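Key idea: predict the complex, not the pieces.
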Amino acid sequence: VTPQDLAGLDVLVTAGPTREPLDPVRYLSNRSSGKMGYALARAAFLRGARVRLVTGPAHLMPPPGVEVQRVETAGEMYEAVLQHFDSVDLVIKAAAVADYRPGEVSPQKIKKQGQAMQIELARNPDILAELGRRKKAHQLLVGFAAETNDLEQNALAKLTGKNLDLLVANDVTLPGAGFDHDTNVVRIFGRDGVVEALPLMDKNRVAQKILDRAAKLLQSRQGA
Ligand code: PMT
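Result:
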């Protein structure tokens, strides 16, 4: 039986990649499929939460019962998340948001020109860091970190630097972990110093493990 430990709570999940246009037919993006975020949205709904899923372009069936909001760019994801942030209890940011976008979007298809060309990139807003600044005492913020090296050091820097409650780090170089796989290998870092290192498992089970930890934290706050 699925525990109803998120009943009555509002949960916001982000998933998928963002697409940053360069011209009408080209964009910069990444290999995120949305599977991790969709699994989290589905699991949170099954545990009784009202769930909004803000998703970048993904070829997945939206989980039943979940309010889906589709976005394309990091800027659109920023607007969508900020619009709903004040009214949610838990935010889980599994989306792979582009850190940079083309500084200029050409209104026409860019033509071939010479042997090399340069594209200037502009920094996107860090959505999670902004949520960390705005977070109220009752709100729980869960971030992800996709790392290829120095996992623990980078994870802890994101956990404290972005004022998160939990940080889920995946070493995306491990077989079966990270982008586009049905499985993942994660470590969950808490502010209490507790680190849970999970073996390779299906993303639906990873989602349950993340929600176990988040639900406990929410309960301990309500009891406090
Ligand atoms: O979608 P799948 O194919 O299932 O793959 C899952 C995943 C690998 C994408 C997922 O498990 C994951 O790791 N998601 C986060 C990927 C990422 O962008 O990590 P990051 O270390 O660059 O970002 C750290 C955190 O800040 C993330 O929670 C991210 O959503 C957030 N962020 C990053 C940049 C930005 N401009 N705004 C943000 O909010």
